[in-house]
Every structure is written in structure tokens, then in C-alpha cells.
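Appendix B. One record, verbatim.
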Amino acid sequence: MIPIWLATLLLLVASNVFMTFAWYYHLKHQGWALWQAILISWLIAFVEYCLMVPANRMGHVSAGGPFTAPQLKIIQEAVTLTVFGFFSWLVLKEKLQWTDYVAFTLIFAGAAVGLFGKHFTQAATATSTAASSTGAG
């Protein structure tokens, strides 16, 4: 059986693929009327919701999952950037600029702090407590 954290991540990736198409694919079809672009985007987004809602439900601590709501959102945003980067390059044929990479890196750094910061803080506190109890530091 797939671990809950992995199933959550896979569903988030799949949902983001659909959402990225819903939000940006119409840019390749400027001939579509606006109402057509909206309708097609909504139909694609429906599939995204059918994947995102189960991902968030199963992944959340209230359902026995390993993630808090903020962590699920942070993961979703990091996945969104990754999926969008590939979408932009492969589908829209738009290369990311160096400034895009810098911005993505800063966002990923923030995501790492949000997801793992608690672990770093706990480890630093444990180290500091151990050092002060032994008279070091």
C-alpha cells in the first residue's frame, strides 16, 4: 500500500497538472471566444478539484495524515511552481528567465522553512538544552 504522504503528494501533482492546463492552456488558443475558454477551463478544473480535495482530506492530520493545512498549502504551491515551469517550457514554449529561477528558488526556500523549520528548531533547541545541561556553551 502507498504511504499516505506519497498518495497525497501524487494526487497534488496530478491535480496541479490539470489546474495548470485550466489556467493557462487557453493562451495557446487565442481564437477561442472568452466564454469557450472559461467553459473549457472550468471543465478541466473540475477534474483538478476531484484530485485536490481527496489529497487534502487524506493528507490532513484530522484524517490521520501527516500534514497540517498550512503544510498542505505549502506543498501545493511548490508543486504548482514545478508543474508550471515544465508547462511553460513544454506547452507554451516559453523559457524561464534567470529572474524566474531566482524567484522560484526563494519560494522553494520559504516552502522548506514552512515544511521543515519546526524540525530544525526542535533539533537546535535539543542541542542547546543538551549543551547547557553539560556546562558547554
